[in-house]
Structures are given as C-alpha cells and as structure tokens.
Amino acid sequence: MAASHADMNHYWQQPKATSQQHNWSALEKNMRPEACAQCHESQFNDWKQSLHAEAFSPGMVGQFATMDHGSGNDCLRCHAPLETQLFDTAQAMLASLKTLRKNPIGINQDADLQSQQADLPLRHSGVSCAVCHVRQGLRFGPPRLGSDVQGQIKGDAHGGFIANKRFEQSNFCAECHQFPQSYAINGKPLENTVMEWQQSKFSQLGKQCQSCHMPERRHQFKGIHDKDFTRQGLDIHTVQKGEYIALSITSTNIGHAFPTYVTPLVRIHAMALDVQQQTIKTWHWDLVREVYYDDGWQEKRDTRLFPDETRLFMPTDIPEAAIQLHFQIEVKPDHFYQGMYQSLLEDDMQQDAQVLIKRALKTSYQRVYILYDEVRKLP
C-alpha cells in the first residue's frame, strides 16, 4: 500500500520503492542514487560522503557467511531496507560477499550511470535516496523551504512529489535509531537515541535530529565519526581546583547521550610530565556504554555524558617530579566492532568473508581520532 501524505504510519513497513503504475522515463524509474544525482547533484555530493552511503558495509556483509538469508535481511532492515534491496535466497546473500569484495565502493562518485558501480544491485548503495524518498514510484519529502503546504506538489519530473512535515521530525529517524524495548539491556534499548532526545531539553525546544544532522537540509548525516562535528557539541576546557587541575567536559549541544550507541568509546587520557617531557604517570577515564554477550546481552557499565551534564576528570596523587599535565580525548567510533572483528578473525572463515572483515577492521582503526589535546603547567 502506498503511503499517503495524510498518513505515513506505515511508511517504514516493508518499504517498496518501485512501481509499474507510472508512465515515466527509464531515468525516472531508476532507483539508483546515480540517477537521482542527475537532477539533485548537491544532495548526492553530500550523501556520497556519509555513512548512509556505506551502510551496506564489509563489516556487516562479512558476517553473512554464517547466517541464513532471513537473518541477513534482518540486518538490511536498517542498512538497506527497501523490498528490492533484500535477499530472495541464501545464494543471493552469499553471492553478495564476492560482489562486495570485488566492488568495495557501492556507488559511482561521479554519478556515471554507465559505470560498473551503477550496475550493482541496489542494496550496495545502502541507505540511499530511494530508501527515504520513494514509495511505489511516488516521491516524498519535506515541504518546500518557507512553505507549510503538504500533499501533492506538482512538478515536471516524476510527477512532482508528496510533501509531509514528518520528514523534519525526529520520529522519522526512529525506525533505525530507536530500538524497541524488547531489545533492552539493563532496562535501556540497545540503541536508545530518540528516547534520549525525547528526555532532553532539545525535544522541548523543538530541535529535531535533522536540526543537527541535516542542517539546512544537507544530506551529510554527520555524527561521532566526524571530529569537527563532535567538537561543536561539547564545551571542553581545563580548570584549576586548588592544587589540582581537572579537565571539564560539558555536553552543551548534543541532544542525546554522548556517545549514544554501544559502538563508540571516548577515552580521556591524562599524563603527568616531568622536566624532560617524559610521561611519569597516566590516568584514564571512559565515556562508554559497554555491553557483552553471556547467555544474553549484559551491560557492564554506562558512563556516558547526558545533555547539559558536566563532568570533571581530575588526576590525583601526582608525582612530585611532575611539572605539567597533558590531557587528551581519544575517540574510537567503532570500538565495539573492532573487538568483534578481531574475534571473528580468530576463527576459520570463508575467504570472501575474511577479506571483508579484515577490510572493516582496518577502516575502524583509521577512524580513530584525537578530539582534544592540551598541556597545562602544574601550579
């Protein structure tokens, strides 16, 4: 059933993009993002750099070798959810390992519709344009800028589009970014981002997910993997407390826990330096929601920072030889996956799967960055 502009409650239930009901051109019927880019170039250029474009990832696909295709499709419900992106058979799922191994990039960066990438199955484009904007051949999106008009908006291309304000609301993102209570660990869903937002001041102020992650409607979808974006959400500085120096971190502009998911690890380092600039003592604190599997998922600790919360990280018992303190904040966006990939590689793996998991592990290390770095003289 096609979603109407009046009722989008079923928009994410078995979403089907394609339809034979419309007498449109081959380009208009093409669900590949390269086709959309022929008219929507700026949106494509932003999106192709985002993690949405990489959602059909080697770290996920590399695990398909030990799954039935129903379990594989469960992963695709967020990573490539359109009906045409799902696997029909186990053979199709297993074939995707070899296809992704040969084609590490699932889209053509230049939007060339004659390219090898543009011939790949649509699932290789991950969470692409059609995933959010097309249902049964009809295009959906937010009202035009400066307008509140909803419903059918006429246009020459693909019959115009159906405008709906839901696209500008956080609940539109909830299908993938808010797990149900049935996935709760220690009372909290494994991914609880939208609920965390609802409990923050940002929801009361009407600041939606899109306000930060799609400013000015840009399709970059930046998050913790982006250093500058992450830094803008935090107030970080050193403070002197008597004879001690502490690092102060306040979550000033993040509308959910920092970090929100179980995947990242944010580690605060403090190092005491002597006159030769040698490290003579270290301290570490973590911001993380750490979970593990032991006859069911368990939560080991939850030390994350919540909206408007300030926390001080203060080294104590400083050696007499120390003259400076060196503070660093290290962000490991894919920390949980790193451990999982390493564990998988310790077992015998199908060759294509092994190549993909190794690729994912390498990428996860490349994404580690230093968010903050400061040296302070001791009083």
Assembly type of the shown chains?
Answer: single chain
Mean pLDDT equals: 95
The total tally of domains equals 2
Low-confidence stretches: 1-6
Please state the CA-atom Rg, rounded to the nearest Å: 23 Å
Strand numbers in spatial order across the main sheet = 1-2-4-3
> What is the strand content?
15-25%
In DSSP terms, counting alpha (H) and pi (I) runs of 4 or more, how many helices? Answer: 14
Structural class: alpha+beta
Describe the main β-sheet briefly: 4 strands, mixed
Name the overall outline: globular
What is the ordering of alpha helices and beta strands? HHHHHHHEEEEHEEHHHHEEEEEEEEHHE
The helix fraction, in percent, is: 25-40%
Say how many strands there are. 15
Q: Can you characterise this structure?
A:
There is one protein chain. The chain is of the alpha+beta class and 379 residues long. It has two domains: 26-168, no CATH class; 227-377, no CATH class. The protein has helices at residues 26-29, 33-36, 41-47, 58-61, 69-79, 90-102, 129-133, 174-177, 193-198, 201-204, 209-213, 227-232, 335-345, 351-366; strands at 134-135, 138-141, 151-153, 161-163, 184-185, 188-189, 234-241, 244-251, 265-273, 279-287, 289-293, 297-302, 310-313, 324-332, 369-377. The chain has a four-stranded mixed β-sheet. A hairpin with a 2-residue loop joins strand 7 and strand 8. It is globular, with a radius of gyration of 23 Å. The N and C termini lie far apart (69 Å). Residues 1-6 have low confidence and may be disordered.
